[in-house]
Amino acid sequence: MQPLLIVMAAAYGAAAGLLVPRPLYRLAVEPEEPWRGACPRGHALTGPARGWLGPARCAGCRDGERDYGTGPVLGAVLTALVCAGLAAAVGARPELAVWLLLVPLGVLLTAVDLAVNRLPDVLTLPMAGGAAALLGAAALLPHSAGSWPRALLGGAVLGGAYLVLFLISPSGMGFGDVKLALTLGVALGWYGWDVLFVGALAGLLLGSCCAVGLVLTRRAGRRTAMAFGPFMILGAGAGLVLGALGAG
């Protein structure tokens, strides 16, 4: 069962990753700009979910000009690998479905933040609510390995901690990071307070080390804005794997 589960998770991840370039293209804009609604040559983006779902390929463009945005291969491979790793660690538990649904959104948020130093509310806020609701449903099913009340408290704790960091240093921490912390706290809190601590600390350490490295190599200054969301997501992913393995 486990090898089949891993293969199915990887296949799902690859398929979901192929859909990342279109919303990435639409969302990777500066805060004062509206979401993109047309391809680079001006054709309106249409399709499922008001044009948010589908390949980054414009039917109205000429041959050789149809593709836009980033290529789909990297996103598909990355999403497939993450989904397969989570399936291997979590196994056939109800919460695996929640993590697999969050992975493409995490990949998308990572790409958007790296592109424009932004974590859009259209992703972070629904993620927090969706994670809380879905884990509540998972807690009702047999063989779940976490605690839903603790997950909710975890979201509040980590979100509150990042809010304090934002108030202390608004130039070093964006409010989007605070909203992302709600989702990550819910996910990490599901497996335990120690998992929450490890996942949150890992994200902070990874981000801090990268910032120090950029400053030392003179590729960034002390006040240079840096995308912190990817490190938060990476640390939380590592925490989830450790929590799932510990719960097994």
TrEMBL record:
Keywords: Hydrolase, Membrane, Methyltransferase, Transferase, Transmembrane, Transmembrane helix. Pfam families: Peptidase_A24 (PF01478). GO terms for molecular function: aspartic-type endopeptidase activity; methyltransferase activity. Residues 101-206 form the Prepilin type IV endopeptidase peptidase domain. The keyword tRNA processing does not apply. The chain crosses the membrane at residues 73-90, 97-116, 122-141, 153-175, 195-216, 228-247. The keyword Methyltransferase applies. Coiled coil: none annotated. GO terms for cellular component: plasma membrane. GO terms for biological process: methylation; signal peptide processing. Its EC number is 2.1.1.-, 3.4.23.43. Belongs to the peptidase A24 family. PANTHER family: PREPILIN LEADER PEPTIDASE_N-METHYLTRANSFERASE-RELATED, TYPE 4 PREPILIN-LIKE PROTEINS LEADER PEPTIDE-PROCESSING ENZYME. This is Leader peptidase (Prepilin peptidase)/N-methyltransferase. It comes from Streptomyces iranensis.
